[in-house]
Amino acid sequence: MELFDELNQLMVKYRFRPNRKMAQLFMVKQDVLARLVKEADLSEKDTVLEIGAGTGFLTRELQKKCKVVAVELDSTLFELLENELPKENLKLIHGNFLEVDVGKITKIVALPPYTISANILAKIFEVEPKLCILVFQKEFVEKLAAEPGFLEYNAMSVLTQYHFDVENLGLIPAGSFFPRPKSHSAILKLSASKKHGQAKDNALFYTFIKSVFRFQNKNVTNSVKNSLPFLGEKFKDPEVINKIVGKLEKHPLAKTKTNLLSCKEFVDLFNELF
User: Fold this and answer.
1) DSSP strand pairing (90-94 vs 67-72)
2) Which positions fall inside the Ribosomal RNA adenine methylase transferase N-terminal domain (predicted)?
3) Which residues are annotated binding-site positions?
4) Residue 12 to residue 17: CA distance in whole angstroms
5) Edge to edge, what strands does the sheet with 67-72 contain?
6) How far apart are CA 210 and CA 200, in angstroms?
7) What global pTM score does this model have?
8) What is the Cα–Cα distance from 90 to 65, expressed in whole angstroms?
9) If you average pLDDT over residues 71-83, what whole number do you get?
10) To the nearest 10°, the Cα dihedral for 41, 170, 35, 74?
11) Which of 42, 112, 155, 173 has a Cα-to-Cα distance from 214 of 20 to 30 A?
């Protein structure tokens, strides 16, 4: 049976329609699901997380490979998953991925809601998977993969590249979804990497990056100076400010435009200043 036909049967059986407020899009192309599973390179030793399991079409393909932790917020769809999916290799969690504890997982394969993409990615940083295969809006994927100096390059680009090697694996036709989205979609591959180094304080580094990109068109000295008040009360102390500014003035990147710095340069700069 075609997935679209199966979806229609499930919508009748469980009396639901795609919820626009929850940004629900259902994948109805088996070849796309097969591509996502293949790119994940799953083994029996893996425990894979699915964010927003929906109708379970992807979930059951993942179950054939390894243990699956599937999170679903919608109560009707959670009931569907409980009733329709095999019990083997499956742990279902009813709740919001941003709020629940998913336990120890090794990989993530998912088609999460686009409206909270940035929040989902921030939570993924905390979960620390080895590999992620995700479907997001095309423009969002392009930002994450962007290089310094490009218009799309922003704070989220730096933070994602701090944790992962980022690859845009290409577009997914809009007709692969029901309902058909107005925006284009792309497959994102994230492979855990520490090639850019380790910040001394991750939480402060995140705030630092978000703050300096408020002033991304200024040079490094000015963007850091303007960012200090956003980093906490400690960095409003004149003595602390003068110490950081003193280091900045001697730094080789002091006059470089902020959005031209690479992820590694940001990590090194942060560790030298703080």
Assistant:
1) parallel
2) 32-194
3) 27, 52, 72
4) 9
5) 90-94, 67-72, 47-51, 107-110, 131-137, 185-192, 164-172
6) 17
7) 0.95
8) 11
9) 98
10) 100
11) 112
Instruction: Kindly indicate the confidence band of residue 176, based on its pLDDT and cuts at 50, 70 and 90.
Output: very high
Burial annotation 11-34 (CB, 10 A radius, 16+ → b, else e) = beeeebeeeeeeebbbbbbeebbe
Binding residues for S-adenosyl-L-methionine: 27, 52, 72
pLDDT of res. 1 = 83
- pLDDT surpasses 90 at 265: yes
Q: Tokens at residue 258, please?
A: 């902020």
Q: Give the distance from CA 63 to its chain's centroid.
A: 22
CA-nearest of 47, 52, 89 to 71 is 52
List, in order of start, the domains of the chain with CATH numbers: 3-192 (3.40.50.150), 202-273 (1.10.8)
149 to 87, 154, 160, 165, 188: CA distances (angstroms): 49, 9, 16, 18, 21
Spatial separation of the C-alpha atoms in residues 123 and 41, rounded to whole Å: 22
* One-letter amino acid of 120: I
